[in-house]
Amino acid sequence: MLLLTEIAGIIPITNEIEAAIRDKFVKCDYMKSECLHEAGKVAKDLYFIEKGLVRMFYHNDAGKDITYGYYTEGDFITVPDSFFTQVPSKYHMEMMEDGTLYAITLSDFNQILIDYPVMQRLENKTLRTFLLKAGERITALQFQSAQERYDTLMDNQPSIIRRVPLGTIASYLGITQETLSRIRGRK
Amino acid sequence: MLLLTEIAGIIPITNEIEAAIRDKFVKCDYMKSECLHEAGKVAKDLYFIEKGLVRMFYHNDAGKDITYGYYTEGDFITVPDSFFTQVPSKYHMEMMEDGTLYAITLSDFNQILIDYPVMQRLENKTLRTFLLKAGERITALQFQSAQERYDTLMDNQPSIIRRVPLGTIASYLGITQETLSRIRGRK
DNA sequence: ATTACTTTTTGATTAATATCAAAAGCAACG
DNA sequence: CGTTGCTTTTGATATTAATCAAAAAGTAAT
Question: Beta carbon of B148 within 7 Å of strand D?
Answer without folding.
Answer: no
